Amino acid sequence: MPELSRRTLIAAATATVAAAGLSAAPAQASTETDEDRARSDRALKQVISGMSLEEKVGQLFVMRVYGHSATDPDQADIDANLKEIGVRTAAEMIDRYKLGGIIYFAWAHNVRDPHQIADLSNGIQAAGLAQDSRVPLLISTDQEHGIVARVGKPATLFPGAMALGAGGSRADARKAGQIAGAELRAVGIRQDYAPDADVNINPANPVIGVRSFGADPKAVAGMVAAQVKGYQSAHIASTAKHFPGHGDTVDDSHAKLPYIHHTREQWEQLDKPSFEAAIAAGIDSIMTAHIVVPALDPAEDPATLSHPILTGILREQLGYDGVVVTDSLGMQGVRTKYGDERVPVLALKAGVDQLLNPPSLSVAWNAVLNAVKGGELTEERLDESILRILRLKAKLGLFDEPYVSHGQVDKTVGTHQHLAAADRIAERTTTLLVNKDRLLPLNRRTHKKVLVLGANPASPSLSDGPPTTVLGAALTELGFTTTVLATGTAPSQAAIDQAVAAAAGQDAVLIGTYNVTAGSAQQKLVKAVAATGVPVVTLSMRNPYDVAQLDVSAAHLAAYSWIDVELRAAVRVLTGAAEPQGKLPVPVQRADDPSKELFPIGFGLTY
Fold first, then answer.
1. Quick one: signal sequence residues (predicted)?
2. Could you read off the pLDDT of 145-164 as tens digits, one per residue?
3. Where are the beta strands (DSSP E) in 309-448?
4. Which CATH number among 3.30.460.10, 3.40.50.1700, 2.60.120.620, 1.10.275.10 corresponds to the domain 430-599?
5. Choosing from 36, 41, 254, 340, which is the catalytic residue?
6. Contact 207, 246 (CB under 8 A)
């Protein structure tokens, strides 16, 4: 086909996409008739028919790129792009590989501030629309909130999933999703890899934990559905993850291939309900897990590469026809059994639509291209996935309005109303688990001087400072006199001795803990300070299971994260400026006998 006529055909088809009403907001999707869907699909298929094979392959990939700008990144980011991808910039990568999507990371320097993110998004869209296919890109990120958030302040940051599970309010979960989604859309991010739909029934799970809403499948399902509706009411794509369920692993799929030995019946009872709820709520995309579940696939392929799991269960049994995206293909879990050139091909054969972040884009892209040329994959199979992807882009309004503005950023991101909503929601999540002799709430008359000790998990873009500093500042604002001494996650004996000395003359000690284990240095710190006779309040800043190792604490609260909004809320609760309302969404087992519960699901004290 002559180039001019080909461009004209694609431009006309793209215009038809917009004219056919394909940019309808998700909230309107329920009014779409079969006739509307058929008309939309005809327009999208016309776009697909004008694509070259290379353009079709590119539409399937969502890739990382270094830099704050699509065309003019810093030299260090150019060097990183050349080393890992063989291009200098995002625009060059899009031109070479005809990509369908980009994923943003903080470590890739994509998210400095809201205006910069918006400009990067616009640059990416301009590069995409300059291609022959003239199809906008779908820009995504992992913005679960809590401990996983790529876009930091001044954007509004909310409590994470387990904290919301402790709050127990589906209305709060939906509100958090709606506000978070609106802020992402304002900076050009249209697909969020949230919420986490895993049911965390294993306290030793190293990768999910507080990213899950809890351990009760019914409760998790309700919260997942609420978050999906919240995000998608803001006109972005929500993504339930990690199918078929990553909540009962002891291995991290970033580093190895986990096995889950649930029976089919156990999977139906534990893992399935939350994904069913997401589908019923109209979820736009579902992310796969790099895990093996032999009861679901006797061949023991990772779920990402499993036809019985993705096509047999997700597509056919659950009736899901939306976009299926892999978890990152750079994770070891999906690379253990097969080489990098086989993984993307097997994922497509299993039923995947979007191939996320392969370690080598050149290897993965050419593997798919060659699989089609060699007959292992057909263009028709690619067209099925591309149609789903384009349906989503059309639904999100990308064909009609791919660009964003600084004005919209200023009106939306980190507004006073959004920040206040986050504070109110966080207050309802803080969980009081121990309160010996009714020590809490602390008051300025009897506990004026407070020593703050503890761990400082790093999250520079998400905090006003180290967690101990945030806790000390929050106490000071409420009229307490504070001394802050960071002791870390593995305090040395010298640090413990210094903390004991600093406790002298204090009225109370607040210690922030982070994943405490039996015999750990954090446990020794708490015991040593408690032995001084000064009342010790401990605050778990990630997993609520810490309390089982801290029986010497006079009081213990669970914040479920070290993010500012949750730490400030916890301080308001422990000082009586707010009431403790959170209830455990997971059980906490006894340290001396893990077969018995120390605190059941639903436990939480009040004043």
1. 1-29
2. 999 999 999 999 999 999 99
3. 323-325, 355-356, 431-435
4. 3.40.50.1700
5. 254
6. yes
To the query of whether residue 235 is one of the catalytic residues in this protein, the response is no
Phi-psi region of 18 (alpha: psi -120 to 50; beta: other; left: phi over 0): alpha
Class of 3-412 in CATH: alpha beta
Phi, psi dihedrals of residue 220, rounded to the nearest 5°:
-60, -45
CB atoms within 10 A of CB 410: 13
Q: In the chain, helix, strand, coil percent, each to 5?
A: 45, 15, 45
Residue-wise DSSP of 197-209: ------TT-SSSG
Residue 481, strand partner residues? 449
* pLDDT one-digit tens code per residue, 72-131: 999 999 999 999 999 999 999 999 999 999 999 999 999 999 999 999 999 999 999 999
Can you point out the beta strands (E) in 45-93? 61-63
pLDDT band at 558 (very low <50, low <70, confident <90, very high): very high
Host H or E run for residue 371: helix 361-373
Average pLDDT, the chain: 93
CA–CA separation, 98 vs 361, rounded Å?
Answer: 12
For 473-520, how does the pLDDT look when each residue is reduced to its tens digit (9 = 90+)?
999 999 999 999 999 999 999 999 999 999 999 999 999 999 999 999
Q: Provide the pLDDT confidence category of residue 171 given band limits of 50, 70 and 90.
A: very high
Could you state, in order of their start, the residue ranges of all structural domains in the chain?
3-412, 430-599
Q: What are phi and psi of 494, to 5 degrees?
A: -65, -40
pLDDT at position 33 is 82
Q: What's the CA gap between 564 and 463, in Å, rounded?
A: 6
pLDDT of residue 34: 82
Rounded CA gap, 356 and 379, in Å?
Answer: 20
Q: Is the pLDDT of residue 336 over 50?
A: yes
Give Cα separations from 293 to 260, 268, 370, 530 (angstroms).
5, 13, 30, 45
Start-to-end C-alpha separation, the chain: 75
At residue 107, the pLDDT reads 95
Within 168-216, where are the H helices? Answer: 170-186
Q: Is there a catalytic annotation at residue 132?
A: no
Q: Return the percentage of the chain with pLDDT > 90, whole number.
A: 89
The catalytic residue among 113, 142, 327, 564 is 327
d(CA 519, CA 121): 48
Q: Alpha helix (H) ranges present in 377-466?
A: 379-395, 406-412, 416-427
Pull the structure tokens for residue 134: 């003239």
State whether the Cα torsion 47-53-55-56 is positive or negative: positive
List, in sequence order, the alpha helices (H) in 98-169.
Answer: 114-129, 161-167
What contacts 28, CB < 8 A, 6 or more positions away? none
Are 547 and 591 in contact, with CB atoms under 8 Å apart? no
For range 3-26, the mean pLDDT? 40
